[in-house]
Amino acid sequence: MHTLNVIYLAYLDCLNRQAFDERGTFVDDTVEHNGRAFGLPGYRDMLVRDFADIPDLRFQAEILVSDVTRIGARLSFDCTPKSTFMDLPVNGRRVQFCEHAFYEFEHRKIRKVWSVIDKAEIERQIA
Question: pLDDT (tens digit, 9 = 90+) per residue, 46-91?
């Protein structure tokens, strides 16, 4: 298995265990998300908020494609957000959706993340 794939799967495991203090092992201090400079503290805050809003959140890699410095991933989710999610009134209903994400690594750590969640699929399920 490609080295970045091993690192990335360990990162997902860290997220799923909500081991937020271990993120620095996988994520650069100056991480960016969708072009915004988050830094490690901002990235942590986003994840803590996500798990608070979606207690059964679990990151599951469905597809991984990688080269020397990047990973492309299709992540699948099957969860029950407590209230509003992506400005949609999910309100405790179970939804299944995917996120498509690209990660750029520097020095074996995630430096940049670009991601898009399939909001249309969530809309279809709660309609």
Answer: 999 999 999 999 999 999 999 999 999 999 999 999 999 999 999 9
- Own/partner contacts of 111-115, CB < 8 Å, gap of 24 or more, are 111/28, 111/30, 111/31, 111/32, 112/31, 112/32, 112/33, 113/31, 113/32, 113/33, 113/34, 114/33, 114/34, 114/35, 115/33, 115/34
Cα 34–27–48 angle (5° rounding)?
75
Q: How confident is the model at residue 20 (pLDDT cuts 50, 70, 90)?
A: confident
CA atoms within 13 A on the CB side of 18: 12
Give residue 120's Cα distance to chain centre: 18
Token pair 């091993």: residue: 6
Q: Are the C-beta atoms of 33 and 23 separated by less than 8 Å?
A: no
